[in-house]
Write a structure and sequence with these properties.
single chain; alpha/beta; about 40% helix; globular; 5-oxoprolinase subunit PxpA; Glyco_hydro/deAcase_b/a-brl; LamB/YcsF/PxpA-like
């Protein structure tokens, strides 16, 4: 039996058409994408362009909402009322949903961005708000988030499917959360380490923490960071590494 794994990438994180073209260069090597929808970056034009490009490469399309904070690219936590958080999430997801409808394609999933992603991974009440907003859009839309996190529990509680995400280039702590980007060991120091971690995820094998402890994490989708200047090259090498090990890049999520 041939194994397969989904490779997702956060895209549409610019209002510059040159960046949309660069995003499109990554698309042949991934199987799903998460499109920025105005919270940390993006607008109607970038969403439309991203969806068109994603459709031409048969990608599963997701919305990528964040805290409404373009100044900090959604990378700082914000204290919002439950009402205001729900409102901004609904507006951001609607930007992608409406564009999908105009193009005759269905939104597949929603993945939070940046600080919202990290906060919802450990904050149960925040995770519940996010999951409830997604479920209100449609019970068929999936929630993508950190594997084995509070987001998974929230998705189960509201009755929507959850996509367990793993990061190829990030180190993990013993509790299965990501090492903070403020720490020196947040990212792998070499591409080889990242490729090996991705392969371990795809093969269902444990990964190592910086301290050398083995972690078993079930992953449905592996994140490739599209904002890396070498993202296209990394995507090609990742696909080849998986192919060499009889693993297909396929959404299936």
């Amino acid at each position: 039996m041939i194994r397969s794994i989904d490779i997702n990438c956060d895209l549409g994180e610019s209002t510059n058409p040159e960046d949309w073209a660069r995003d499109a260069e990554i698309m042949p090597y991934i199987s799903s994408c998460n499109i920025a929808c105005g919270g940390h970056e993006g607008n109607q034009a970038s969403v439309n362009a991203s969806i068109k490009n994603a459709m031409s490469h048969n990608l599963a399309i997701g919305a990528h909402p964040s805290y409404p904070d373009k100044e900090n690219f959604g990378r700082k936590s914000m204290s919002l009322s439950d009402h205001n958080l729900r409102k901004t999430l609904q507006q951001q997801i609607a930007l992608v949903t409406d564009s999908c409808n105009r193009h005759g394609i269905k939104l597949n999933h929603v993945k939070p961005h940046g600080a919202l992603y990290n906060d919802a991974a450990v904050n149960e009440s925040l995770a519940m708000i996010f999951a409830e907003v997604v479920a209100q859009v449609s019970g068929n839309i999936k929630l993508m988030g950190l594997a084995d996190s509070a987001m998974k529990e929230a998705a189960n509680k509201v009755g929507i499917d959850f996509i367990n995400e793993g990061f190829m280039d990030r180190n993990y702590q013993e509790n299965k959360t990501l090492v903070s980007r403020t720490e020196s060991e947040a990212l792998h120091s070499t591409l080889e380490e990242s490729l090996q971690q991705a392969l371990n995820f795809a093969q269902g094998k444990p990964i190592y923490t910086p301290s050398g402890q083995l972690l078993s994490i079930k992953v449905d989708s592996i994140c490739l960071h599209g904002d890396n200047p070498d993202a296209v090259s990394i995507a090609k090498q990742l696909q080849q590494r998986l192919k060499d090990n009889q693993i297909q890049v396929r959404s299936g999520i």
